[in-house]
Amino acid sequence: MRILREYLIALQFFTRVPVTGRLGDWAGYSPQLLRSSSAHFPGVGWLVGLAACASFALFALLLHGSAFTALVAAIGCTAATALLTGAFHEDGLADVADGLGGSADREHALAIMKDSRLGTYGVLTLVLAVAAKIALLAVLAGQSEAGVLLALFAAHVVSRFAPLLIVRQLRYVGDEQASKSKPLVESLGRRELAIAAAWCVPPLLLACLVRGIAFVAVPLLLAALAWWRMMRLFETRLQGFTGDALGATQQVCEIAFYLGAAIAFNLG
């Protein structure tokens, strides 16, 4: 029951799903539960990934036969996931782009990342990221209808495991007084990491069984490379991570996973 309570808290934090009333009262709240809920970040990816798959399939079904079906379905499912999460991670990506692009100085970059206003670097990065998602999903849909759904599901789960590895490797350098994410990452232990990894196994196993080992290995490799690059970037530029950095890592790893899945089709 503790795991379910942790999951509900993670769902409440990382999505717009209302966990209120009796359910919210039952889930409760404590600093320890909030910290432990980080283990279920990939589990939240299950819900977001399934919503993405359902949205994509619905648009594909309703618009079947059009030359633009895959493109519209890709736009529709991307919009659906942004609505479900409140564009939480996209916001982090834009803030990181503004901060790191706007200043080479660490303190100034961190200050820019706290500013709610969006600058040129943030807008451009966000546009390119969304365009990359839509384009890659459309490519995947053109290669295999089942393949795009498998990639959507797995990418949303695996990309939410990557930020937890950032937490394990680097120290938190955000605003401890104002940050919403600090309690979630301040004591990520082996238990939380093991639970998070367990959430990733079923979607990857399903993709492997349906599409083969390459369809899992190549996306994982590109996602791992994306994670490593993001970690090195935060280590050298910020000497640590912030909540925005975790959101940016999720977005970059999600896109890298789609790219790997598209490449895997051609390799097969």
Structural notes for this entry:
This protein is mainly α and 268 residues long. It has one domain (50-267). The chain contains 14 helices and no strands. The chain has helices spanning 2-14, 21-27, 31-36, 41-62, 69-85, 88-102, 106-114, 120-143, 145-158, 162-169, 182-185, 190-211, 214-237, 243-267. Helix 6 packs antiparallel against helix 7 (106-114). The longest helix has 25 residues, at 243-267. It is globular and about 50 Å long.
Features:
14 helices; 268 residues; mainly alpha
Envelope shape: globular
Quote the beta fraction.
Answer: under 5%
Helix percentage: over 70%
Q: Based on DSSP secondary structure assignment, what is the total number of beta strands?
A: 0
Largest sheet properties: none
Q: Report Rg.
A: 18 Å
Mean pLDDT: 90
Brief overview, please?
The chain is 78% helix and 0% strand. It has 268 residues and is mainly α.
Topology of this protein?
Elements: H1 2-14, H2 21-27, H3 31-36, H4 41-62, H5 69-85, H6 88-102, H7 106-114, H8 120-143, H9 145-158, H10 162-169, H11 182-185, H12 190-211, H13 214-237, H14 243-267
Helix pairs in contact: 4-5, 4-9, 4-12, 5-8, 6-7, 6-8, 6-14, 8-9, 8-14, 9-12, 9-14, 10-13, 10-14, 13-14
